[in-house]
Specification:
The protein is α/β, with parallel strands linked by helices. The protein contains twelve helices and eleven strands. A hairpin with a 4-residue loop joins strand 1 and strand 2. The longest helix has 30 residues. Bound molecules: 5'-O-[(R)-(carboxyoxy)(hydroxy)phosphoryl]adenosine and zinc ion. Zinc ion binds next to helix 6.
Length: 390
């Protein structure tokens, strides 16, 4: 089954084309195209993602990204297929409509059987662009459009091996043993999800205020570092030369001993702010390094401790740590240590570096499993749901 997937929930415009086939030992996936266009440089001057700007960027980028994925030079032959119906879905996306008419409406159906699109959670104006584009393509080629939950995408991103190599084929042999626990850590979410099988999820813990990635971004701003802050903090923390230094702060570990599986990061960010404000200004490089290091300490300790508690409670056979923040080397190594020392039988899965952030490949995978589970489901009225939960 060939699936085209579209992801526009935040600041990446991403499309992929995947062929999925059942085999005797599992499912073989072939990545026929996968393009992620980051808008980071556009949002950077605002210090975060600006929804109206993200929407405009998606409108500008979807057609060029689609043509790259289909490996199709821009061509102009409007009026074939169901072009009129297709264009009617783009009435609210005027800029996108012009490009669609000029370069897409004339494309023949590239043997795709379904289109999967992120319907939430995320920024609604941004989600709508992807959804309307998916509906237009579905109408053009007369194929179904399937709504996918972005967070399920992050969970399933771990089944893709290194996609930077020439080999674009891989086989999924049920490497996720159930029950599985997923810790999803991104700019908008911090969730512990219990998965009884693919498609059967329960959120058993979540942040009560800021998401981890958001905390990284805010602390980065306090330190005068650009957006996104996660990678910048991580780079700084690596320069830390050792404890015992009088300049080393001591930040709180919010909710680390609370009886539930919830998190809280806004107090930690405030502690960093107060600490930084009491230092000589402008902050010295040494102070910035010590803050970044201790902030990562606090975050990894809380994440690891709460996740360990969740595994103790649910007896997970697999731990998945995914989402943008799972790119963090320190956090990854703390999780490796914790699993090795406490749950040697539990499999620990991280996404490949290229798939930690938002991408369309994970949406194709989640979509594939959804179609497999309910092949005859009809998704007539797909809507953007900013707060969609698993
Ligand atoms: O999953 P993602 O790309 O987008 C959302 O769905 O939010 O996550 C983006 C978040 C940003 O907050 C960014 O600062 C954080 O992931 N991030 C990191 C690292 N790389 C990205 N945080 C900590 N360490 C990193 N190396
Ligand atoms: Zn995400």
């Amino acid at each position: 089954m060939r699936i085209l997937s579209i992801e526009t929930s935040c600041d990446e415009t991403a499309i992929s084309l995947v062929d999925a086939r059942k085999t005797e030992s599992g499912i073989s996936f072939e990545i026929l195209g996968n393009v992620t266009h980051s808008q980071v440089s556009v949002h950077q001057e605002f210090g975060g993602v600006f929804p109206a700007l993200a929407k405009r960027e998606h409108q500008n980028n979807l057609v060029p990204v689609l043509l790259m994925v289909l490996n199709n030079p821009a061509q102009s032959d409007p009026g074939r297929n169901n072009a009129d119906l297709a264009c009617s879905f783009l009435e609210r996306e005027r800029d996108l409509l012009e490009q669609f008419k000029a370069h897409v409406a004339g494309l023949e159906n590239p043997s795709i059987e379904a289109i999967c699109v992120t319907s939430g959670p995320g920024l609604e104006p941004a989600l709508w662009v992807g959804i309307n584009f998916a509906k237009a393509l579905g109408a053009l080629w007369n194929i179904p459009v399937v709504a996918v939950n972005h967070m399920e995408g992050h969970i399933l991103s771990v089944i893709v091996p290194d996609v930077s190599t020439e080999e674009k084929k891989f086989e999924f042999k049920n490497e996720i043993r159930f029950p599985a626990l997923a810790l999803l850590i991104s700019g908008g979410h911090t969730e512990l999800v219990l998965a009884k099988s693919i498609g059967d999820y329960e959120i058993i813990g979540k942040t009560r205020d800021d998401a981890v990635g958001e905390a990284f971004d805010k602390v980065a701003r306090i330190l005068g570092l650009p957006y996104p802050g996660g990678p910048e903090i991580s780079k700084l923390a690596l320069q830390f030369k050792g404890e015992g230094n009088s300049a080393t702060p001591n930040f709180p570990r919010p909710m680390i001993t609370s009886p539930d599986l919830d998190f809280s990061f806004s107090g930690l960010k405030t502690a960093v702010l107060y600490y930084a404000q009491n230092l000589p200004q402008p902050l010295s490089q040494e102070n910035k390094i010590a803050i970044a290091y201790e902030f990562e300490n606090a975050v990894s300790e809380v994440l690891v401790k709460k996740t360990k508690k969740a595994i103790d409670t649910c007896g997970a056979q697999t731990l998945i740590v995914a989402g943008g923040v799972s790119a963090n080397a320190r956090i990854k190594s703390e999780f490796r240590k914790m699993i090795e020392q406490n749950f040697p039988e539990t499999a620990l899965l991280f996404p490949e570096r290229e798939l930690t952030g938002d991408n369309a490949l994970m949406i194709a995978l989640a979509g594939y499993f959804k179609i497999e589970k309910s092949p005859n489901a009809v998704y007539n009225d797909i809507r953007a749901e900013g707060n969609l939960i698993l």
